[in-house]
Design brief:
136 residues; alpha+beta; globular; 5 helices
Length: 136
């Protein structure tokens, strides 16, 4: 990966052109988040915890709610979380399932629902193209 400042500029550019959520971690600390505060921190932490159990430098997962989330990491304790995004509109039932899966309080439902209403839908192909761009 590039220098921290260069990575932040690339992530900002990608976010501004796609509106895909991006979080940049250095030594387990989130130092950049795009968008800055639209998702509950616990939701991002839950995704990060799930991804941290997987081996590899660059990979993605798809959840039962059809969310895509990816992680790209380097040898310098830096990680980029891409997503979570979805390919279809999430129903109220899907969001309830997310809250249960990630053991999040029900008070987050409206925030998560609002976030996904304004976040564009991504096909798997589009998502993987962004992952490839981040992983350069």
């Amino acid at each position: 990966m590039k220098k921290t400042k260069e990575i932040a500029e690339l992530l900002k550019l990608i976010y501004n052109s796609t509106f895909i959520p991006l979080h940049f971690y250095e030594k387990e600390r989130c130092i950049y988040a795009f968008p800055s505060n639209d998702l509950p921190v616990d939701f991002i932490s839950a995704n990060k915890s799930m991804l941290d159990t997987t081996e590899g430098d660059c990979f993605y997962i798809s959840t039962k709610e059809s969310l895509y989330v990816a992680l790209a990491r380097d040898n310098y304790d830096r990680e980029i979380i891409i997503g979570p995004v979805c390919s279809t509109n999430l129903s109220s039932k899907d969001i309830d399932s997310l809250l249960t899966t990630y053991m999040l309080p029900h008070t987050y439902k409206e925030e998560i629902q609002t976030f996904y209403e304004i976040t564009p839908l991504f096909s798997l192909y589009q998502f993987l193209n962004i992952l490839a761009m981040v992983n350069q």
